[in-house]
Every structure is written in structure tokens, then in C-alpha cells.
Design goal:
This protein has 14 helices and 11 strands. The chain has about 375 residues and is an alpha/beta fold.
């Protein structure tokens, strides 16, 4: 593993234990796409032994993407089982009996039909955490319906808030449902439940839905709404591009910069760095002035290149950053210094996060094409 200019802060300090804080935790992952692989990537990055039960002849992830380039599949061992046969099901149960948690991302009822539902596996391993990842949840009128990220965040009231004034809602790729509200909450829930199981000796089922998670991610906005500080209209509020001091602006070379100068002391730094002395900008929180001031800033930022604005506004506590493309981000000095991005087997990717002082995460490993660790895994049980 390397960044394009070295690992920087990813190098562990002398005397550290190099394994990740979840060393000793075993996760059995039933192959799926999207949020559950991301949760398992996080667990594997942080030291857990994640064993993926893959399909004989290929998995959903392998159908969509060359698995040797699939970052979500990194740092796993793979067991190939045919779960449509009694032998395959029995081997999966054998693995589950050795696990702290199992993760499945299938529609409600599918695991029960396979003979691998929570009643079966918890009876054999009472401390097991049975983590279920779905879009709508295990219950409710929509539970059996097909869907994707965009549908779940729509029903949660989250998608309605995303976009500019007068324009239709804009999906934030699939970051909110699949990964923030789905995979990340699933990983958090698994670790929380494992801690409880180790304290009580009792496992449980986790019902993690992207609907619930994407609603949870909006908690701060619901707080602002309750306080009368958020209108249920896109693009007119403090943090949704309504204000002139929280938005992106195009520069003279067709690139962009991001401004987030919410606090008055940082707002003043922004105005000073730009060279604005017009008293019209002094009433920062007067929302009626925001549209006019945004037009003014739009014109100002188009007078210089992105690099020139970086020279004027970086390192001034003005809440400023250049908007970098995926091609540019790994080469920024800050990202290089911290090792934010790494290269593994020729694939540039985000490095493991977060950082630990005593148990730093190990080097990620990319999955190999047709990887099969079945003999190794069962030989070590």
C-alpha cells in the first residue's frame, strides 16, 4: 500500500500493535452489493476477520465490476458455497457457529427460505449478532418492495431537501442511503451489539434499513426545523446553498471553490481575504439579502483562477477549500501528508479510517479474481 508520494501519517508509531482495534472479531458476510459490503469493508479495515460467503461461479459484485478493482471487497477471505444445496447450507451454519456476527443484505424472508434465518443460527450460537441490511426494513408496507438509494432517501424526507431553489431534488449519488445511512450505521450497530453480547452472553438481530439511516442523518436539520430556523423548501436555507456564504463558486478557469464561512469570525476572514469592504455584506444572517449577495460573489469569484483564490484564501481560517476532482484529490499536499488516499495493486482508493494511535489499521488487500479461500478457512476452524 502506498500513496502517490508515500504513506505520510499512516506509518504507525514505534511500539504500536499493528492489527486494527477489531482484531479477534470474526464476521461472516453473505455476498451482496452496496451497503453491506461497505459495512464489512469498514470492519475489515479496522482489523476484523471478514469471511465472505460467495457464490460458486461468481457473485453479484463480480457480475457488476472486476472484483480486483472493487474497493468495497478489499481485505476479505472468500468461501465459495452453493446455498441451494444442503451441504452448502450446513457449511454456512458451521461458519456462523464460529462468528461474532453475520451480515446479510437480502430481501426479507430469503435467508429463512435458505434455512439460515436468525432463529436457526442464534439457536446454534446464542451470542451471535445477526445483522440484516435492507432498504425499507424488515417490516412495514414497503418491506418486500424493490428499491435503491434514491427511493429510500425519498421516503425519509431527505431527498426533498437536496437541491437548489426552484430546481428538482438532486440525489447525492448513492452516498446518503447506501453508505451513510446504510453501511456506516450497520457497522456501528454491529460493533455496538458485539460489545453487548460480550457483556451479557446474549446475541440479537439488527434490523438496519437505509430508510431509517437516511432519516437519522437529517437529525440536525429536523432540529433546525423544530426551532423555526429551516424552511421545508430547497435551496433557501443556511446550509443548502440558500446563503451566499455556504456554496460553491466558479472561477475564471472553469473550476470551483467551496465556501462554508458560517461563524461570523470566519465570515469576516472570508470578506477580508476577498477584499470586500461593502457594508451590504455586514448583515450576514439577513436572509433577504442572500440572493443579491450571492450574485455579487459569483461575479467576484469569476475574476480569478482557482489557484489564485487558493493563494488568497487558504490558511486564513475563512472556511475555504478548492473543489477537487477525483483525479486531483490524491495529489493535494494535505491529502498526501495524511495518506488519505493509497494505491493498492494499482488501484487508487481511500485509505482505512479512522486513525488509531496504538492499533493502526493494517494494509488493505484487494480481492483477487476468482479468489477462493474455502480450504484455508475450513482448515483453520
Amino acid at each position: 500500500m502506498r500513496s502517490l508520494a508515500g504513506l505520510g501519517r499512516l506509518y504507525p508509531r514505534e511500539g504500536t500493535v499493528i492489527s486494527g482495534p477489531l482484531n479477534g472479531v470474526r464476521i461472516i458476510e453473505f455476498d451482496a452489493i452496496g451497503p453491506s459490503p461497505y459495512a464489512c469493508m469498514m470492519l475489515a479495515d479496522n482489523g476484523a476477520d471478514v469471511i465472505r460467503i460467495g457464490r460458486v461461479g461468481g457473485s453479484p459484485a463480480e457480475d457488476i465490476l472486476d472484483v480486483s478493482k472493487d474497493i468495497l471487497s478489499r481485505s476479505r477471505r472468500v468461501v465459495r458455497l452453493d446455498l441451494k444445496t444442503p451441504h452448502g447450507v450446513e457449511r454456512a451454519r458451521e461458519l456462523a457457529r464460529t462468528a461474532d456476527a453475520i451480515v446479510e443484505g437480502l430481501r426479507p424472508g430469503v435467508m429463512e427460505k435458505l434455512g439460515l434465518g436468525p432463529d436457526v443460527l442464534l439457536a446454534e450460537q446464542p451470542k451471535l449478532i445477526y445483522a440484516r441490511m435492507t432498504g425499507w426494513g424488515q417490516s412495514g408496507p414497503y418491506a418486500a418492495e424493490a428499491g435503491h438509494d434514491i427511493n429510500y432517501i425519498a421516503l425519509a424526507g431527505t431527498l426533498h431537501a437536496l437541491g437548489r431553489e426552484g430546481e428538482k431534488p438532486t440525489p447525492p449519488i448513492n452516498l446518503v442511503g447506501d453508505f451513510g445511512g446504510g453501511g456506516m450505521l450497520l457497522a456501528f450497530g454491529i460493533v455496538s451489539a458485539i460489545l453487548n453480547a460480550r457483556a451479557t452472553g446474549m446475541g440479537q438481530v439488527i434490523d438496519c434499513s437505509m430508510l431509517d439511516g437516511s432519516a437519522s442523518l437529517m437529525s440536525m436539520i429536523w432540529s433546525l426545523r423544530a426551532a423555526g430556523q429551516w424552511r421545508d423548501v430547497r435551496g433557501v436555507n443556511l446550509l443548502d446553498t440558500g446563503s451566499h456564504f455556504y456554496d460553491t463558486y466558479e472561477t475564471s478557469d472553469g473550476k470551483y471553490v467551496a465556501i462554508g464561512s458560517v461563524e461570523p469570525q470566519f465570515y469576516r476572514k472570508l470578506l477580508d481575504g476577498i477584499g470586500i469592504t461593502d457594508p451590504a455584506f455586514d448583515s450576514q444572517m439577513r436572509s433577504a439579502s442572500w440572493p443579491e449577495l450571492k450574485v455579487r460573489l459569483t461575479e467576484i469569484f469569476k475574476t480569478r483562477t482557482r489557484a489564485e483564490w487558493c493563494e488568497a484564501l487558504e490558511y486564513r481560517n475563512a472556511c475555504f477549500a478548492p473543489v477537487l476532482s477525483m483525479a486531483e484529490a490524491p495529489h493535494h499536499p494535505h491529502n498526501i501528508e495524511r495518506g488519505v488516499f493509497v494505491e493498492v495493486d494499482g488501484v487508487v482508493q481511500p485509505g482505512p479510517a479512522p486513525r488509531y494511535s496504538r492499533t493502526p489499521n493494517a494494509t488493505p488487500r484487494m480481492m483477487k479474481r476468482n479468489q477462493d479461500d474455502t480450504d484455508d478457512v475450513f482448515g483453520g476452524l
